[in-house]
Amino acid sequence: MTLHKPNQSTTGAAAPAANAFASAVNGAVAEAMEKGTSAFAKSMRTFQQEGAKFMARRIEGNMKAAEQFGACRTLPDFLAAQQNWFADTARAYNEEWVRCGELMTEVFEDDTASPGDRRSDRSSPSH
After folding, report:
1. Does 105 map to a domain?
2. Per-residue pLDDT of the chain (127 residues; tens, 9 = 90+)
3. Please, which contacts does 103-110 make with residues 24 or more away whose CB atoms are closer than 8 Å?
4. In this structure, is residue 64 part of a structural domain?
């Protein structure tokens, strides 16, 4: 099989345009990858910190519940303490999921906004 090598006459005018297009695409791809990497790193850091804080709060809550379990003298007391622990735990996990959603939104809003769109004071109302 014979390979056809393009000669200058078939690629002359198209080559600079193709190179300009490739440069523009490569620049856009590189910029998108940089933003994606930045968002990923920021989200990992944020969620590791939040996860550690949540675990510390849960350990504290579980230790308090264990103390309450130990203070129970009757089965109804124990069941009431267990019910309180379960309700507190369910509420804590629900609040944490909401918090994680808020954090995810913040991370990606901050990272995808253009520099002119970012506000230093997020609490101020937008007009």
Report:
1. yes
2. 566 565 555 555 556 666 776 676 677 777 777 777 777 888 889 899 999 999 999 999 999 999 999 999 999 999 999 999 999 999 999 999 999 999 888 887 876 665 555 444 444 444 4
3. 103/43, 103/46, 103/47, 103/50, 104/43, 107/39, 107/42, 107/43, 107/46, 108/39, 108/43, 110/42
4. yes
**Number of separate domains in the chain:** 1
Q: What angle do CA 78, 84, 89 make, to 5 degrees?
A: 125
Half-sphere exposure of residue 115: CA atoms within 13 angstroms, side-chain side: 0
Place of tokens 């970012």: 118
The size of the chain, in residues, is: 127
Look up the pTM and report it. Answer: 0.58
Q: Is residue 77 part of a domain?
A: yes
Residue 42 resides in a domain: yes
